[in-house]
Amino acid sequence: MNEIQIPRRNNLDAFWMPYSDNKYFKSTPRLLARAEGMSYFTQDGQEVLDGTAGLWCCNAGHGRREIVEAIQKQAAVMDFAPTFQLGHPIAFEAAARVAEMTPEGMDRVFFVNSGSEAADTALKIALAYHKARGESQRVRLVGRERGYHGVGFGGMSVGGIGGNRKQFGAQLPYVDHLPHTHLPAKNAFSRDQPEHGADLAEVLENLVQLHGDTIAAVIVEPLAGSTGVLVPPKGYLEKLRQLCTRHGILLIFDEVITGFGRIGANFGAERLGVTPDIMTMAKGLTNAAVPMGAVATSNLVYETIVDGVPAGIELFHGYTYSGHPLASAAAIATLDLHRAEDLPGRSRAMEGYFGDAAHAMRDAPGVIDVRNFGLVAGIELEPRVGKPGARAMEIFRTCFDKGVLTRVTGDIVALSPPLIVERPHVDRLFGTLAEAIHAVPA
Fold first, then answer.
1. Domains of the chain, CATH where assigned
2. Long-range contact set of residues 161-164: C-beta below 8 Å, sequence gap at least 24
């Protein structure tokens, strides 16, 4: 017999927080209660300048009325409709808006709900493509050391972060990795793309010699954000593109962070001048107002899979919430803002001032590297002996208590403010970070 339960008091116990030190947080909680423009606000009303666009995702700033109203309107019209063998107009409109922004010839859009789902979807599409064209032996997937492609088993397997894998045993089979491109001995304190490291792409040639024609796809981030702002060396992505084309391998760009203006163009592919075969996206797609991700593919990839099946379902893959009506409405409103306010252009206009402020940190105590591209910067600190990551985490907490939100990965402080950022925000962001670096003992 069911009984009416008295609601539990909110004592923070029930929520198992992701990627968090749960014991520490619940003993010393830092709670965000409201957001507007460039800032969050705590429960007691303290303003916290957002130096990370939430989690690389609120590119247009917080609480945008246009997005809120679009979601409210759609919720009143139709809250949900399936997209398995059915459709609803707003999902098709959202896909068309995305296709207007992707590189020429990448006009097919598959909706998912997160960057993790986008990565796994892209990998499955790559495998399906080769099977459809009669090369079923192409089952091997190549990622990169220090790559991050979400937390699904596919993305985790091609990713290159040991801490994300060590608890979970076996990964996907038939996976290999390229070396990362971080070369501090040669590229320390580089502005924009570093000079050295293009030759690291040639390791793919070695993998082809090792594995033969079994490689289906290579997946990389144009700029690796989650592992500490690793900017691609000049010529690296171009060389990777050439090698993939030569050997019949699909090139996948994970644009979950670099998409929608973060590095001064609609996508990293546009800014860096290299077009992949498949591209993942999420985060900025809806300004994070409703979870949504997507995979864009070349017309060739789509047509090979779809035309390769005489009738019936062509790709046995999808999610209940693919193209969700509320997410689609949020995406359309976000992309309207993106265009009307020229967010990529605003990013380009601010990147010089932002980069100057980042590199002014090079003389702060314990700073061993600074790297930047677009509106992304990484400030790397000398780790404490035997306690990697501890110093940066203390700096993160100190900055928060001083009213600025940063993000840390290892001993790297990563900054990626909303693209509506202005010079006073940049001054406050880096000024507070400098104060925290000086205040936290080495």
1. 22-64+342-439 (3.90.1150.10), 68-340 (3.40.640.10)
2. 161/226, 161/227
* Alpha carbon distance 418, 60 (integer Å): 6
3-state secondary structure at position 4: coil
- CA atoms of 398 and 207, how far apart (whole Å): 45
**Beta strand pairing call for 215-220 and 47-50:** unpaired
Taking residue 431's Cβ as centre, other Cβ atoms within 10 Å add up to: 14
CB atoms within 10 A of CB 99: 14
Supply the mean pLDDT for the chain.
96
Residue 1 in this model has a pLDDT that exceeds 50:
no
Contact (Cβ atoms closer than 8 angstroms) between residue 152 and residue 117: yes
8 Å CB contact between 325 and 91: yes
Question: How many Å apart are CA 117 and CA 323, to the nearest integer?
Answer: 13
CB 268 within 8 A of CB 257: no
Angle between helices 115-132 and 299-307 (to 10 degrees): 60
Q: What is the pLDDT of residues 192-251, one digit of tens each?
A: 999 999 999 999 999 999 999 999 999 999 999 999 999 999 999 999 999 999 999 999
Tokens representing residue 214 in the block: 């079994």
Assess contact for 430 and 404: CB atoms under 8 A.
no
CA 79 vs CA 72, 110, 121, 293, 321: distances in Å: 10, 20, 25, 18, 11
Could you tell me what percent of the chain has a pLDDT over 70? Answer: 98
Tell me how far CA of residue 274 lies from CA of 232, 241, 260, 351, 420, in angstroms: 12, 7, 16, 21, 26
Q: Is the pLDDT of residue 108 over 50?
A: yes
